Amino acid sequence: MSKPNGLRAKIGILSSFFVASLFICGLPIFVMQAVSLYHVSHGSAGALESYQNIPQIIISFIVFSYITRIGYRKSLTLIAFIMTLACIVMPYLDNFWAIKLYMVLAGMAFVCTKITVYSATALVTKSKKGHVSFLSIMEGIFMFGTMFGMWVFSEFMKGSWMHAFWIFACLSALRDCKIIN
Questions:
Q1: Residue 13 forms part of a structural domain
Q2: Confidence class of residue 2 from pLDDT cuts 50, 70 and 90?
Q3: Is the pLDDT reported for residue 180 higher than 60?
Q4: Can you give the pTM of this predicted structure?
Q5: What's the DSSP call for residue 163?
Q6: Domain count, the chain
Q7: Cβ-contact 83, 108 below 8 angstroms
């Protein structure tokens, strides 16, 4: 089996990690909005993180065998499709329970993406040094993505904050189109 060392594969991996970082960057915003808009107690709002983390723990033990059977590209495409749909409907569901559901989906999508991209990294690098370098770039892209996502949310705080999800949906769909083609 030959290694796909191409730039296209690396960009696909990096863009997948970038989009995954967008999906999970909103926790501080969600907590703030839960308290101020939905009048949820601070304790309930603070528990939102568990809606993301508990599925991550559970899915991490289950998903790897399925990802290897389905394939990395198909897995990333399926994850992006599900999260794109979730981001499209979030402004219509504008409710605290919808944020909880989103956090569950985002947690599951993130851990699946993380497992997939870290596994695929070995396929797109030629050496140990290249592998380490690519992982560093991935982590930098992730940090940039979380910063960018928070910036997007902050821009939408001036109006309807839920419409920020449509930006994430567009970026996810764009990433998905690049991987399919």
A1: yes
A2: very low
A3: no
A4: 0.90
A5: G
A6: 1
A7: no
